């Protein structure tokens, strides 16, 4: 017994168990003595140490799986040598199961000095509670196609040639290039509005006129402050004089405006110094995706539903770099077996206190690789396609918008087939259904700048409608300070090629699922909110043809936002 206690006190894996279970050295010795005595004087070995940790873990937490994997994580990663096995001493099935466990790569003890699990997260209530619903929920079975991922077609709608699939050089744009991009946006949207509303021509915005005229321009603010009803300017494109003129909104009964919005207004400008608007023409959204006839005939299972799960980081509580929420999400994926799982960053959050203060013992890239590796390994037998979307809050990745996709050079050939790396933003085609994806919090950014005088509409619906009618993923100009916009790349990769069937817009604001002019818009919330658990989303998708009367039927059958 004395030799066992000496081994126990100097054993590196036992030190890791002390750290993960929050035990002092004398406490774990007493725990071992009690355990060994009740088992008839067991000798200290790897197998008995496993049994010992299991019993300690059961008493320390309600989730022994997480504690067990956390404790053994550093043991497995502490030695870079491969465990030796022989026919006489084969690897136990239990050890093999531990190595394949998704929690192993996520032990905070090996990359953070604070390995204490979040008390508020572990004590959260309402686990699995549905907090928002959409569509036909009664009798809905939330499950995938039982691992038939080979039948799921998933690709960037623009195709690899026209999509942002590689890194690019930035910080080289010139002011005149930015101006050219904005001018083209005004001209393109203006032409669509002119055609849709049968407008003969646009008048120069600053030209005095006694009669009512129609003008085209971009909304901006007369100062660096927040836009309000008294500070609205309309800036015309070069074809309409390129001037700025103040706008009087007093005669408009309903309006919703934000800086950067391209609008058409009807009104009078008798003095040439102020335009009095009497009518505001709303933008026109793009058409939805229509499946080619040949592809529609080739569909094997046109009526089978597809389950898509959506989650957005951060994946750790704010009081520590413990990835318990991510481990819980992996367990949900393993239970529900969705066909596609869309995971949006941040994965290594630049706003996390320990990241900001550099209180980590591994590189940010190493933490990210471990995080993604745990997701890939933990979902290997589930039959789930994984989509990874970067975030500008990912400290290890390029801090630019549009943002190129992650690079995962260590993925195996089999894993590469089921992992899709996409940029932010992008339009994804999943079995004939289009998904618009962005991890940038455009709802929060536009919500802080929008002004409105509208009855019977909520702020989220107005902002989402602006995105769809302005036809891009970030219509706000100028962008907020934390968004580093490359406008030349934005012109090519930040536009909506069509109106998506489903628009994923995660935000710090409250979660929701709602239909906005035919597009199902989803804010799944974030997987963690400070020190407590957050939410994720799940959708049931079904390819559908137009109904008998010719009206479009949304392919999103049902949706929910669920607490982790």
Automatic annotation (TrEMBL):
- Keyword rRNA processing attached: no
Top-rank taxon: Eukaryota
DNA polymerase alpha subunit B OB domain segment(s)? 179-283
A GO molecular function assigned to this protein is: DNA binding
Q: Name one GO cellular component term.
A: alpha DNA polymerase:primase complex
Q: Where is the DNA polymerase alpha/delta/epsilon subunit B domain?
A: 308-514
> Main location per UniProt?
nucleus
Ranges for the DNA polymerase alpha subunit B N-terminal domain?
A: 14-56
Keywords, ordered alphabetically: DNA replication, Nucleus
The record's InterPro entries line, in alphabetical order, gives: DNA_pol_a/d/e_bsu, DNA_pol_alpha_B_N_sf, DNA_pol_alpha_bsu, OB_DPOA2, Pol_alpha_B_N
Gene Ontology BP terms: DNA replication initiation
- According to UniProt, the name of this protein is DNA polymerase alpha subunit B
Name of the gene this protein is made from: pola2
């Amino acid at each position: 017994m004395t030799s066992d206690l000496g081994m126990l006190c100097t054993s590196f894996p036992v030190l890791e168990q002390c750290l993960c279970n929050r035990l002092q050295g004398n406490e774990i010795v007493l725990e071992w003595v009690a355990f060994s005595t009740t088992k008839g004087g067991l000798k200290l070995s790897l197998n008995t140490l496993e049994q010992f940790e299991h019993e300690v873990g059961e008493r320390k937490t309600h989730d022994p799986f997480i504690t067990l994997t956390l404790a053994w994580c550093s043991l497995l990663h502490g030695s870079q040598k491969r465990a030796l096995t022989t026919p006489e001493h084969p690897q136990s099935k239990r050890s093999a199961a531990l190595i394949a466990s998704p929690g192993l790569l996520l032990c905070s003890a090996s990359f953070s000095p604070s390995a204490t699990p979040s008390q508020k997260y572990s004590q959260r209530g309402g686990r699995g509670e549905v907090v928002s619903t959409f569509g036909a929920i009664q009798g809905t079975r939330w499950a995938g196609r039982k691992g038939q991922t080979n039948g799921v077609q998933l690709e960037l709608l623009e195709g690899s040639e026209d999509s942002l699939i590689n890194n690019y050089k930035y910080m080289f744009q010139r002011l005149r290039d930015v101006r050219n991009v904005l001018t083209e946006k005004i001209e393109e949207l203006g032409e669509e509005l002119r055609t849709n509303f049968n407008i003969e021509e646009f008048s120069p915005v600053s030209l005095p006129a006694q009669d009512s005229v129609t003008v085209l321009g971009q909304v901006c603010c007369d100062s660096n402050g927040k836009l309000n009803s008294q500070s609205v300017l309309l800036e015309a494109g070069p074809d309409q004089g390129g001037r700025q003129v103040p706008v009087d909104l007093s005669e408009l009964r309903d309006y919703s405006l934000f800086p950067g919005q391209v609008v058409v207004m009807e009104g009078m400008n008798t003095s040439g110094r102020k335009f009095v608007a009497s009518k505001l023409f709303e933008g026109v959204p793009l058409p939805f995706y229509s499946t080619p006839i040949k592809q529609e005939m080739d569909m094997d299972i046109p009526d089978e539903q597809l389950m898509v799960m959506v989650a957005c980081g951060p994946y750790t509580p704010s009081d520590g770099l413990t990835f318990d929420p991510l481990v819980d999400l992996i367990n949900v994926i393993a239970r529900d077996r969705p066909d596609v799982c869309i995971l949006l960053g941040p994965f290594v959050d630049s706003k996390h206190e320990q990241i900001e203060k550099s209180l980590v013992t591994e590189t940010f890239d190493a933490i990210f690789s471990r995080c993604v590796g745990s997701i890939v390994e933990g979902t290997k037998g589930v039959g789930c396609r994984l989509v990874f979307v970067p975030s500008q809050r990912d400290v290890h990745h390029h801090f630019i918008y549009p943002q190129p996709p992650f690079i995962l050079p260590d993925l195996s050939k089999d894993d590469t087939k089921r992992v899709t790396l996409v940029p932010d933003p992008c339009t994804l085609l999943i079995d004939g259904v289009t998904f618009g994806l962005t991890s940038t919090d455009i709802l929060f950014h536009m919500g802080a700048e929008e002004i409105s005088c509208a009855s019977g509409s909520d702020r989220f619906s107005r902002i989402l409608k602006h995105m769809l009618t302005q036809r891009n993923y970030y219509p706000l100009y100028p962008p907020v300070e934390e968004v580093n916009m490359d406008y030349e790349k934005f012109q090519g990769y930040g536009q909506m090629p069509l109106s998506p069937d489903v628009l994923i817009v995660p935000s710090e604001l409250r979660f929701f699922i709602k239909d906005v002019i035919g597009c199902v818009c989803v804010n799944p919330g974030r997987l963690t909110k400070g020190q407590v658990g957050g939410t994720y989303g799940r959708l049931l998708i079904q390819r559908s043809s137009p109904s008998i009367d010719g009206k479009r039927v949304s392919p999103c059958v049902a949706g929910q936002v669920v607490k982790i």
